[in-house]
């Protein structure tokens, strides 16, 4: 029976736009017996600045993150891209700062994307969830290619009662968000979203699941614009559902 | 041009921080992967792969059968054969319509442009890719397997190697033996227009392998 | 140019073209996947290829000299060229000396890079492309659309009209017959040509050899029929040993088209020798710098020179699959083009280019030599923001990110800002998303977002707020 303390890094987008994802994640973890710690001074991991080429600004935000979470043993994150930013890219932005580099290296193994935490630390693949839907899973790029998260979420979803999981042919294609890419190249971003939606439609699923809220925002935005009756939901919300 | 040579090499060295004559660190050995196959296994694998490429294998038990097979394929048309001794030993160069013995580049080219078949041996064949390995030399010219619309390669079963790895294990320096080593893997093809596959673009559109399994049971 | 080409919108709106690009690249992706799935040592080979390239590039001068010695030993000649003009000068000079009038060419991105055909045209030297796709493009005066499938964007009807117009033949829409027409025309050229020009997939240092891979047979004819063969290659094409081909050949065909080996793999090490009946009398290898030494200076950028031009990154790139090969500023398109274009030309020439990517990483996943393209893109983005700073542009974005960084270090203010945004934002009925923004808000990034998608409203209560309530 897992127990102990975990800290939540909900990410800026979940905090401000999709807070129910954070609540869902907390619900699942508490039900598993974890004590939740939410460091209130948390804000962002720095990815928006880093991806746009503003490394000095990214460093400032990253230092704040490292300070806020310095003493946390497990940091659970409902996002592949934010997790990858911390565990893979902090070493890029601190490559000229030996002390901060050391701090980021010490931090990296303690940061877990949510599904990975459940499977590898809590060691559970069935959280007793129920969610009635025909769903398809979207592999978010950072999770898939940087964190090698692919089978984990599918395993967790397979154990959700009432959920039928269908694989889309374009599961591993990018949704088109890419941070500022979505607004710097809106035509390309929109076209990429529509290609994903076509693939979703071919599965005849009524729900799309992902572990990244930014992907869900992109997909749902395009789905609603097209007036389609497809729901998007974060894995945490599925797993919290009873 | 000598100035350009010096300029390019100087820039390369300056960029890399290297001195003239500086030795590089040692290289790891070549990454060969070995496959242990018996001759019958090699023949089977070659035939399988060759057919997948739309190549047409013809298996014969003796050299005279090889000549008969080639005669049947030729069906009364004209061919150019290379100077490989194995072809004359099989009696192929004696067949009606087979031109051979070319030593002049111009004569050879003229013959190849009108022949319906190009008949060659092959130094080796590769089982796992269904390839012929042609080394240019006194015995084999380049254009015979290239200009005529049909290529017939006559190979002994014992010449079939397992793979590309085995080829380079045996011939680590092809340049020591020939100015041209060509691996031929199937008929010429393209999909440049609408991704539709067409065979016989510039090279032969049809390719036969006459495999002589003499004494192999 | 400063902003992305307008043509991107047109390309995306052209549904037929979108279908052509998506299916062609999808097919190449599927073929690659099947062939690499059947190669258990595939990942090991990628690592070996990366390491071999790193070793060679890090010691490039040594291998250049070794290559040169071996070429000379076999009766050939290496010609060093600083840039495109020197390559053209060499070819023209040789053609004049030999009284050559007709050149046949096989497909070579390097020769496209240096506009070789255009340079030769002005001197009454006919240079004919012999790869079917390239031949079609030459007649149409167009650039290649893709490294491996150059005429991907053209239909059979366009080809039929082109042949009728340029060759005077009857309009023929059957693809097999179109191919036969080209075969006939080009065969005459092969047999009449004075000089054959190819590129090189690999240069083999220990053998003084050029390796050319192809499916049609035009490269073989180019190197076997004319009396002179000139191979033009960038200095980065070197690999140390012939035996290293067991690594590279297993990766190249599979990554490009899903073939274990392409139809013809030619290993050429000089003019014909001894008792060889045919083959060229003269063999030249042009080693081109053309800016490659600029990339050598930076130990990280050097990795871009590992590229073996397989095209896999193009096929897997969701951006390439939407915008196609003609919306990139240079001859090299797709992810590899995105990094080498700024690295050769300077990032401020096309400052938008490194940002035209969602950083999905599909390219790096399939690159046979493991070039970390996303990492290079991120590095280039940092250079662009530095470049804009010193150039005095892009300040509103920079201010925006300074503000962002400041807010993110002041959590109380970040939350206040968030609360304000939540109050100000339109609140659609029934908890829906924002379908249209009021005019004064519909500007900049918000406008770009709204162009393609609905926008979620900020949550009325943030996670912070909800957590406080939960704790009570």
Salient structural properties:
heterotrimer; A: 242 residues; Rossmann fold; 13 helices; 8 strands; 51% helix; C: 472 residues; six-stranded parallel β-sheet; four-stranded mixed β-sheet; elongated
Write up what this structure looks like.
The complex is a heterotrimer of chains A (242), B (217) and C (472). Chain A folds into 2 domains: 4-120, 3-Layer(aba) Sandwich (Rossmann fold), CATH 3.40.50; 126-240, Rossmann fold (3-Layer(aba) Sandwich). In chain A, 51% of the residues lie in helices and 15% in strands. Chain A is built from 13 helices and 8 strands. Chain A has helices at 12-16, 19-31, 47-51, 55-68, 80-93, 98-107, 114-121, 141-146, 151-158, 181-184, 186-203, 213-225, 235-240; strands at 4-8, 34-37, 75-77, 111-113, 130-137, 161-166, 207-210, 231-234. In chain A, the strands form 2 sheets. Chain A has a 4-stranded parallel beta sheet, sandwiched between helices. In chain A, strands 6-5-7-8 form a 4-stranded parallel beta sheet, sandwiched between helices. In chain A, α12 (213-225) links the parallel β7 (207-210) and β8. In chain A, α5 packs antiparallel against α6 (98-107) and α11 packs across α12. Chain B has 217 residues and is α/β, with parallel strands linked by helices. Chain B has one domain (35-212): NagB/RpiA/CoA transferase-like (Rossmann fold). Helices cover 29% and strands 22% of the residues of chain B. In chain B, the strands form 3 sheets. In chain B, strands 1-12-7-4-2-3 form a 6-stranded parallel beta sheet, with helices on both faces. The model of chain B has no long low-confidence stretch (mean pLDDT 95). Chain C has 22 helices and 10 strands. In chain C, the strands form 2 sheets. In chain C, strands 1-10-7-4-2-3 form a 6-stranded parallel beta sheet, with helices on both faces. Chain C has a 4-stranded mixed beta sheet with strand order 8-5-6-9. Among the domains of chain C are: 38-293, Rossmann fold (3-Layer(aba) Sandwich); 408-471, no CATH class. Chain C is elongated and about 95 Å long. Chain C is of the alpha/beta class and 472 residues long. Chains in contact: A-C, B-C. At the B-C interface, α1, α5, α6, β9 and β10 of B face α2, α3, α4, β1 and α8 of C. β9 of chain B pairs antiparallel with β9 of chain C, so a sheet runs across the interface.
